[in-house]
Write a structure and sequence with these properties.
Layout lengths: L5 H52 L24 H4 L24 H7 L1 H7 L2 E3 L20 E2 L7 E2 L13 E5 L2 E2 L1 H4 L5 E2 L8 H7 L12 H14 L3 E6 L4 E5 H5 L4 H5 L18
Antiparallel strand pairs: 1-4, 2-3, 4-7, 5-6, 7-8
């Protein structure tokens, strides 16, 4: 009885390597598809929680980012949905490790945990809220056509919650979706973090639409966002899961979601379903 010759053994190894190279991309896409399915399920639960909050109060959750209300009233959007989602609040300060309990469940997209590492997303959650819409007057007073509230003064001293009937086209209005990422170097933190608000004007989103979608202010920051963009592309094969105000979910490429050169894209972020292009001074060039 004879064994394998060296040539035969090498041929077998080469065949196995070729089969592995063919199968691994398929398995990777299957994993991304499975992660996306779980992510959509998470968003469905957030959609139910949002719907129950609106039914009880007649308004959408305000966000702490837009208001200087007394400290006892300062909550992020997901904190205001805890009674409906069954999830505890999330920590925002990663500079103090151990101050928050690691959370999972509907707060964490498995795609984020896979490509980013668990700590940032488990502490902060994986989803962003359409806080300000696609309407910007200037950087000191952000736009107010999203769901996070209407600022009554430039000092952000008051923030009026948005009534349900102010959303003209619920089936076309973005509510919650996969978060964009803020590079650590932008805020002096220990690691990159998911943003708790969702905006078509965030540089990672611009870059994924077109390399020319960066305005003069951000041209020097491209390198900071490049690594974030590459990881986001691995999250759901370059697509974004989004739930709209009427509760339906879409899996979109970056362009129909973030390309603010298109009026139809601008409208889906604003509660009056208008682009307001005449007032926007932050459009990419």
């Amino acid at each position: 009885m004879t064994g394998f010759t060296l040539i035969e053994l090498l041929v077998v190894i080469v065949i196995i390597a070729i089969l592995a190279s063919l199968l691994l991309p398929v398995l990777g896409r299957a994993k991304q598809a499975a992660d996306s399915a779980v992510c959509k399920s998470n968003l469905r639960q957030w959609g139910f929680a949002l719907r129950m909050h609106v039914d009880d109060f007649g308004t959408y959750p305000k966000t702490m980012w837009l208001t200087n209300d007394p400290p006892g009233n300062q909550f992020w959007w997901h904190d205001q949905l805890t009674n409906y989602s069954g999830t505890p609040g999330l920590n925002w300060d990663l500079a103090q490790p151990g101050t928050a309990t690691v959370q999972k469940g509907i707060q964490v997209c498995p795609g984020y945990a896979r490509v980013w590492g668990n700590r940032p997303v488990w502490y902060l959650g994986s989803y962003g809220y359409n806080t300000v819409g696609a309407y910007h007057v200037d950087m000191d007073r952000p736009g107010q056509l999203g769901l996070g509230g209407e600022v009554a003064s430039a000092a952000l001293s008051l923030c009026r919650p948005i009534q349900e009937n102010e959303v003209v086209a619920p089936s076309e209005m973005v509510a919650i979706g996969d978060a964009t990422i803020s590079p650590a170097a932008m805020w002096g933190g220990p690691c990159d973090r998911p943003m708790k608000y969702l905006s078509p004007y965030y540089p990672v989103a611009w870059m994924d639409v077109s390399d020319t979608c960066m305005n003069d202010v951000n041209r020097g920051q491209v390198a900071l966002f490049e690594a974030c963009r590459l990881k986001i592309r691995r999250r759901h094969s370059g697509r974004w899961n989004v739930i709209f105000c009427d509760g339906h979910i879409e899996n979109l490429r970056a362009k129909p979601l973030f390309d603010v050169r298109c009026d139809e894209v601008l409208k889906r972020w604003n509660r009056d379903n208008l682009p307001h292009r005449e007032t926007v001074n932050m459009l990419p060039r």
